[in-house]
Amino acid sequence: NAGVTQTPKFQVLKTGQSMTLQCAQDMNHNSMYWYRQDPGMGLRLIYYSASEGTTDKGEVPNGYNVSRLNKREFSLRLESAAPSQTSVYFCASSEWPGAGETQYFGPGTRLLVL
Amino acid sequence: LAKTTQPISMDSYEGQEVNITCSHNNIATNDYITWYQQFPSQGPRFIIQGYKTKVTNEVASLFIPADRKSSTLSLPRVSLSDTAVYYCLVGDTGNTDKLIFGTGTRLQVFP
After folding, report:
1. Any B CB within 8 A of A61 CB
2. What is the 3-state secondary structure (H, E, C) of chain B?
3. Fewest C-beta atoms under 10 Å: which of A66, A108, B75, B83?
4. What is the pLDDT along chain B (111 residues), one digit of tens a residue?
5. A96: nearest CB among B41, B94, B104
6. Phi, psi angles (nearest 5°) of residue B11
7. How far is Cα A44 from Cα A60, in angstroms, rounded to an integer?
8. Is the Cβ pair B104, A96 closer than 8 Å?
9. Contacts A–B by Cβ distance under 8 A
């Protein structure tokens, strides 16, 4: 039981390049989330998927797209990376959506955009 | 929104009890109070959740007064490994508008 896994662990991009961050969970959770965390800051919600087949914007969705590939997998895509997107990205899942549900987080992806 | 307010940082020594208070004056009837712990370079980890009165598990206790406008996370006899950032979240099931982690409380434990 691996919980929530993320790939890659670390990535360096040049401005304008694109990439996809992958996330998978093996807990049969309905809801999945993508957060970003900038140095010294809390987590900010980028996008979430309340259930398979649905996605919605969070607090900071600009510059990102997501795909809920199936119940297990939720990917985050940067179409044209910008230095402002340098951050640590965390994926999380919960049985149902909402702050009242326990969220389980992955180890994070550290992204540097030059 | 049930905005939360926590101290930015706290210091303690090994073996002491640490209490971190979170204010949430606008908490709604259906909201739960959930605390997470985050170590450097790791994702947050669930510690404890409560609705009212007191909840205790093997890691911490959570005290919630009757008016539910605040809550206190209590860590008994902290060790160096408890050095982390602690986040308080307030919200219900189904409402993702309240998924606001804020900057949390940075706890530093000294030997």
Report:
1. no
2. CCCCECCCEEEEECCCCEEEEEECCCCCCCCEEEEEEECCCCCCEEEEEECCEEEECCCCEEEECCCCCEEEEEECCCCHHHCEEEEEEEECCCCHHHCCCCCCEEEEEEC
3. B83
4. 558 999 999 999 999 999 999 999 999 999 999 999 999 989 999 999 999 999 999 999 999 999 999 999 999 999 999 999 999 999 988 878 778 888 899 999 999
5. B94
6. -115, 150
7. 7
8. no
9. 80
**β-bridge partners, A67:** A75
Evaluated on CA atoms B89, A92, B103, B94, the torsion sign reads negative
Residue type, A105: F
Instruction: Go through chain B and tell me how many residues it has.
Output: 111
- Would you state the structure tokens that stand for residue B60, as one six-digit string? 């911490």
Sequence-distant (≥ 6) Cβ neighbours of residue B6 within 8 angstroms: B20, B21, B22, B23, B86, B87, B88, B102, B103, B104, B105
**Interchain proximity A45–B49, CB inside 8 Å:** no
Asked if residues B33 and B89 have their Cβ atoms less than 8 Å apart, the reply is: yes
All residues of chain B having their beta carbon less than 8 Å from the beta carbon of residue A106 are 43
